[in-house]
UniProtKB/TrEMBL annotation:
The lineage of its organism: Eukaryota, Metazoa, Ecdysozoa, Arthropoda, Hexapoda. Accessory subunit of the mitochondrial membrane respiratory chain NADH dehydrogenase (Complex I), that is believed not to be involved in catalysis. Complex I functions in the transfer of electrons from NADH to the respiratory chain. The immediate electron acceptor for the enzyme is believed to be ubiquinone. This is NADH dehydrogenase [ubiquinone] 1 beta subcomplex subunit 5, mitochondrial. The keyword Membrane applies. InterPro entries: NADH_UbQ_OxRdtase_B5_su. It is a single-pass membrane protein. One of its GO terms (cellular component) is mitochondrial inner membrane. It comes from Hypothenemus hampei (Coffee berry borer). It comes from the Eukaryota.
Length: 173
């Protein structure tokens, strides 16, 4: 029993200091805007950057370490190299082969564009000449021909001949 009596003051001090309620103090909960959207945005940016950066980094590392740059070699006789085979880097070759347009095709498209523009210029010059001739000669614009039905011409001629026969006193024989 003497041991319990000696520990009693120590137990009283421990229990008094451990469980205090501080409800009467004037502490307040500070209101502040939430940072949830910002943290969510950062998480998504890091996720998608890593989703793209890690595979691209691994692919670039593999290509540069294991494949390496292209080396020049003799072209076999009768073989015509493709346009993407002239690039040194394997990544550039892949992009040129699968994604970039053929330079010859682009050149031909550009030549076609120039030809079409020259034709437009030539047609504008001809149109300007026509307009100058119209103004010079006092003509009017008539770019089209409107056909006349022959049926009405025949009816008009027949009517004219009937009227002429009726009014003609001395018919010629």
């Amino acid at each position: 029993m003497s041991l319990v009596s000696k520990l009693k003051p120590l137990l009283r001090i421990a229990t008094q200091n451990s469980a205090k309620r501080a409800m009467s103090e004037h502490r307040t909960f500070p209101l502040q805007p939430t940072r949830w959207q910002w943290k969510k945005f950062k998480d998504l940016v890091h996720y998608y950057v890593m989703l793209g950066a890690i595979p691209c980094g691994l692919f670039t590392f593999y290509m540069n370490v294991f494949e390496g740059p292209a080396t020049l070699s003799e072209i076999p006789e009768g073989y015509i190299p493709k346009y993407w085979e002239y690039y040194k880097n394997p990544v550039t070759r892949f992009l040129a082969k699968n994604f970039y347009p053929d330079p010859q095709q682009e050149y031909e498209k550009f030549c076609t564009y120039i030809f079409v523009e020259q034709e437009k210029i030539r047609l504008r010059e001809i149109e300007q000449k026509v307009l100058n001739h119209i103004a010079e000669r006092g003509d009017y614009q008539a770019y089209y021909y409107k056909p006349v039905a022959a049926k009405y011409q025949r009816m008009t001629r027949e009517g004219y001949e009937k009227i002429k026969d009726l009014h003609d006193i001395n018919p010629q024989e």
